[in-house]
What does this fold into?
Amino acid sequence: MKNRCFWVTNDPLYIAYHDEEWGVPVYDDATLFEFLVLETFQAGLSWITILRKRENFRAAFDNFDYQKIVNYTEEKYEELLQDKGIIRNKLKIKATISNAQAFMEVQKEYGSFSKYIWGFCDGKPIKNSFKTREEVPATTELSDKISKDLKKRGFKFVGSTVIYAFMQATGMVNDHTTDCFRYNGI
It folds into this structure.
């Protein structure tokens, strides 16, 4: 049996996410935006809740296409508020729409969101060596710095905890515990 990180349950969705996605470096803008949306909605909720609704989010938010989301009308916003398949939080839905605009502004300035976000860690994942749950932080100085910069650029729901979770999910940091089979496999 494979040894996995402490947070993985026996839920097949969680296992697949851990084994195939979590901590794998993502440099593609479309995927980075998807994770930004999902992490935004996850704030205050469990990640498994988001994973279970991921395909509903994908359908509701036009496959996480920020170029479409940026043009959402009030009518589309109201439609999203009625969508039982997603988290129907007014502020998070509005944030997703405004974050699409901020995301595209960063792309204009840096050529890609990926260049901007990965620039905070010189384009390479930070490999931590945590052995236990207690060692894994919820935030770091770097997530504080990125959060502050994103907020300055108009992003919403990008507190340091959300950003650190985003960094873990997109492989900016490798926080697989040292006893996890994925620790050296990324």
About this structure: The domain at 25-174 is CATH 1.10.340.30 (Endonuclease III; domain 1). Residues 20 and 125 are 17 Å apart (CA to CA). The longest helix spans residues 90-110.
